[in-house]
Design a protein that fits this description.
The chain has one domain (16-129). The chain is 68% helix and 0% strand. It has helices spanning 18-24, 29-47, 51-72, 76-79, 82-90, 93-111, 115-129. The chain is flat. Mean pLDDT is 91; it is low at 1-11.
Length: 139
Amino acid sequence: MGALVLRGQAGGQHSLTLPERALYHQIHPVKVFADVGSALIALDLLWRHLLVPGLVMALLPPVLVSATLIREVDLDRYRRSAMGAYVRRFMPPWVQALRLFGAAFALYAAWYHVPAGVVGGLALIAACWANGIVPRRPS
């Protein structure tokens, strides 16, 4: 079995700018897994009023994975993919901020045992990811 190579180019040189790497790392499978997995665990911990473990689970894995992917991984293949074109077109900073708000809202709702708030926050995240799926009226 081969070794996992993190650096795509020698010396950590990247063909993408930092804002591009920050955008395309969001569609890396490891990032998606870290975000979804840590969010589910954090929701459960906050629901049980375990504040510090819940916040650690909500923040630490996604931040560490993001930092590693942005710094170490060559994300050019994700830029060239269909999903890369999708996030480039339909995931501007304001939509990313809305996704973050949805996650924070769901976590807040979990603390106060409001299932509709948890579902609403998660639905907002899903709607942000589906931003480009719904056809728009011509302007």
